[in-house]
Amino acid sequence: MAKRKNRGRRHPLASAALLILGLAAVGGGYTVVSEAADASAPAPAASQLTAEDGQRLYMANCATCHGVEAVGTKNGPTLIGVGAASVNFQVMTGRMPLAFQGPQADQRNPQFTQEQSDAMGEYIQTLGAGPDKPDEEWLDTSATGVDIANGAELFRINCAMCHNVAGAGGALTEGKFAPNLHDIDGAHIYEAMLTGPQNMPVFNDNNISPEEKRDVIAYLHYLDESPSVGGWDLGSLGPVSEGLFIWTLGLGSIVALTVWLTSRPN
């Protein structure tokens, strides 16, 4: 008698396929429900962010290095008393959160919005009074009384030894550097002078007044807007790049001329 074919037997992969389809259906349904819930419950306006929101952002993104109570760890300094100005500078220039451990933090695209940075700054300010963000009055370089020449002199005396007189930046020791100051937001220039990030000294209002800080910002913005009257500026790095250019072009021309002269038949 011929064997009767077993029609009820499942393929070995049928159970796995059903499991995958079930997981996909559950995941898809959850996504749809979540999106619908998000759409029906509007998020709080950014202006409603408070110091409590800033604390939550801090705990999620900063506490690993700076400590739960912001007193610092071996991986990051204390934030007690640094103030909202320091938070805004570090966060909105993308230096924090730190991308990797190195001689100093590099400028990057910011990882937070301005409102989130303000909320974290407000939280840090509650831990200990420190320099606050500058008033718009001291960032308005078009205001009456702004003196670009005075800003240039102040920059030359206090900043050019590291940042170069043209704000092109420069190398420091142990892999550190003074960053390029071209196309920098005025608030960040002011906050850097006020808080002294990384290797920079602090220029508080007793050293350089708010009016003088505004003059320095005006000078740096003037450099951004003014073309090089001498032609190709070679990166505005001064005698190093200029000397390299002269030696390379000048000596190269002399060598080429010498080879050409000696190769001519008598």
Automatic annotation (TrEMBL):
Enzyme class: translocase
Gene3D superfamilies on file: Cytochrome c-like domain (1.10.760.10)
Annotated protein name in UniProt: Cytochrome bc1 complex cytochrome c subunit
Membrane topology, record value: Multi-pass membrane protein
Alphabetical UniProt keywords: Cell membrane, Electron transport, Heme, Iron, Membrane, Metal-binding, Repeat, Respiratory chain, Translocase, Transmembrane, Transmembrane helix, Transport
Residues at which heme c 1 binds: C62, C65, H66
A GO term, aspect molecular function: quinol-cytochrome-c reductase activity
Catalyzed reaction equations: a quinol + 2 Fe(III)-[cytochrome c](out) = a quinone + 2 Fe(II)-[cytochrome c](out) + 2 H(+)(out)
EC number: 7.1.1.8
Gene Ontology annotations for the cellular component aspect, listed alphabetically: plasma membrane
PROSITE patterns: CYTC, TAT
Pfam families linked: Cytochrom_C (PF00034), Cytochrome_CBB3 (PF13442)
Subunit organization: The cytochrome bc1 complex is composed of a cytochrome b (QcrB), the Rieske iron-sulfur protein (QcrA) and a diheme cytochrome c (QcrC) subunit.
tRNA processing found in the keyword field: no
Broad class of the protein's primary localization: membrane
Presence of keyword Transport: yes
Organism taxonomic ancestry: Bacteria, Bacillati, Actinomycetota, Actinomycetes, Micrococcales
Ranges annotated as spanning the membrane: 244-262
Domain (Cytochrome c): residue spans on this chain: 49-128, 146-224
Leader peptide range in chain numbering: none
